[in-house]
Design goal:
31% of the residues lie in helices and 28% in strands. The chain has 508 residues and is of the alpha+beta class. Strand 25 (481-485) and strand 26 form a beta hairpin. Helix 2 packs across helix 10. The chain binds glycyl-adenosine-5'-phosphate (GAP).
């Protein structure tokens, strides 16, 4: 999908920083890694936890109409039959019989090479921001190589899912550049299968959940019966989901094991669903801004009516401008009462509420904001990353890498730096401050190396503030420290009380 040189450079720089500073590692790296699986290192786990905790606080704890749950990853297999995942949670898979590469047919594009009104052959390209341009270039190359005379028509880009039986053998494989090796697309179910118990036969088949959402639907009645929720209300959950993606790619953007933060907001069947839907889209946009994503990188994509599932009334994705293109970050779907009705039918247990006004039972409808924590993680890294020229103490220009992370999610909020590590008066004061701060905040004590180097280290980790305990702290009245601000690099003197006030204002 990338692709200007700049955007792929940015992606490379992010992957490299993520590894170098312990944000993200490849899973099982010493064994060569496993495609589509990742580990979060010491800084990464803090950043991810902060994203999740901010979401939980804002979505659940700070609202009176939403409760949280945590359901099991492996559920009764009937859940996935009722939800439609066993029959339909699939992507169209295409094999290249020669290279053994696999493609998603909806990410593989082709075009006829038409010269003087006649089809002379076909060209193909994988999905990217330049798919159209790549196909046009390939068509021109094709014409030149075959020494075809006449006028080349502009290519018409088509998805491989639309290729006819006659066309499939004529489309070149992206791997080999030659036609004849691509198979017709076939449905590939993305659920990971496992077996529960000692027997490995059809009766013990179970699935790793491909979404957390079904947990909320299956526990709907439990929540209604054991809490005092009243419509409209939501049930939220954060947890791992698993999808055997055909083409995991773009680092943690599309992986096979990932975390979702989903919320099912139940409304009356007669409620204004479009209004509730719009309110949730706005809520999600504002929340993303509250953790530091710039508005300029966000946009909306409304799924065309004809592409929606039959039960869906509308889906809007909040899109983010990643280095590899504008891609889905957060989907907000109006799902009608499909899921509860499916589970009621399959289990024989009604999933209804009672309307006091009409004295009738009904099945609530649902608005579902569903987002991947890892996708937010990648978005915040992308938006926060900057390399800039700065002057050191002697006035020499040098480069610094900085992560301008919001204090809400930064892995370390404050670094405590004694100016010298062998001056007890400085280190004692620094340690005392550190001990006090760490009760409430993630803070780091760093006494290694020149102060400028320590600032750079914290800049790269995204630490919003550094506090230096210097000679003025111990020699002058007021017990003040030097506060150095990450983004502006401005320095000022601050008291302990002012530091706590600053943190209370920005870390929430
Ligand atoms: N319950 C609805 C649902 O799961 P989805 O659009 O398939 O909808 C919701 O997934 C969100 O989960 C996506 O918007 C994305 O942020 C995240 N997500 C989905 N597949 C992912 C993958 N393979 N890797 C990382 N995140 C993924």
């Amino acid at each position: 999908m990338p692709e200007s040189a700049d955007s792929s450079n940015l992606m490379e720089a992010l992957v490299s920083l993520a590894k170098r500073r312990g944000f993200i590692y490849q899973s099982s790296e010493i064994y060569g890694g496993l495609n589509g699986f990742f580990d979060y290192g010491p800084l990464g786990v803090e950043l991810k936890r902060n994203i999740r905790d901010c979401w939980w606080r804002d979505m659940v704890q700070r609202r009176e109409d939403i409760v949280g749950i945590e359901t099991s990853i492996i559920m009764h297999p009937k859940v996935w039959e009722a939800s439609g995942h066993v029959a339909g949670f699939s992507d169209p898979l295409v094999d290249c019989k020669v290279s053994k590469q696999r493609y998603r047919a909806d990410q593989l594009f082709f075009a006829a090479v038409v010269v003087d009104g006649k089809t002379a052959g076909y060209v193909s390209a994988l999905e990217s921001e330049r798919t159209g341009a790549e196909l046009q270039e390939a068509a021109e190359t094709f014409k030149r190589k075959k020494s075809l005379q006449g006028a080349l028509e502009p290519v018409k880009v088509r998805e491989f899912t639309e290729a006819t039986e006659a066309e499939i053998p004529l489309v070149p494989s992206p791997a080999t550049g030659e036609p004849g090796s691509l198979t017709a697309p076939r449905a590939f179910n993305m659920m990971f299968q496992t077996n529960v118990g000692a027997m490995s036969d059809a009766s013990s088949v179970a699935y790793l959940r491909p979404e957390t959402a079904q947990g909320m639907f299956v526990d709907f009645k439990n929540v209604v019966d054991t809490t005092r929720v009243k419509l409209p209300f939501g049930i939220a959950q954060v947890g791992k989901s698993f999808r055997n993606e055909i083409t995991p790619r773009n680092f943690i953007f599309r992986s096979r094991e990932f975390e979702q933060m989903e919320m099912e907001y139940f409304i009356h069947e007669d409620a204004d669903w479009a209004k509730a839907h719009e309110e949730w889209i706005v809520w999600c946009e504002n929340w993303l801004k509250s953790i530091g994503l710039p508005e300029s990188h966000l946009s909306r994509y409304a799924h065309p009516k004809e592409k929606l599932a039959f039960y869906s009334r509308g889906t809007v994705d909040i899109m983010f401008k990643y280095p590899f293109g504008v891609q889905e970050l957060w989907g907000i779907a109006a799902r009608g009462n499909y899921d509860l009705t499916q589970h009621a039918n399959a289990s024989g247990k009604p999933q209804e509420m009672f309307d006091e006004a009409t004295k009738k039972k009904f099945v609530p409808h649902v608005i579902e904001p569903a987002v991947g924590t890892d996708r937010i993680f990648l978005a915040v890294l992308t938006a926060a990353y900057a390399v800039e020229d700065v002057k050191d103490e002697k006035g020499n220009v040098e480069q610094r890498t900085v992560l301008r992370l919001s204090p809400r999610i930064a892995p370390v909020k404050v670094a405590i730096l004694p100016l010298l590590k062998n001056k007890e008066q400085l280190t004692n004061r620094a340690r005392a401050l550190f001990e006090k701060l760490k009760r409430n905040y993630a803070v780091q004590y760093d006494d290694g190396g020149a102060i400028g180097k320590r600032y750079r280290r914290q800049d790269e980790a995204g630490t919003p503030w550094c506090v230096t305990i210097d000679f003025d702290t111990i020699e002058k009245p007021g017990d003040t420290f030097t506060l150095r601000e990450r983004d502006s690099m401005a320095q000022k003197r601050i008291t302990e009380a002012e530091l706590f006030a600053l943190l209370a204002e920005h870390v929430y």
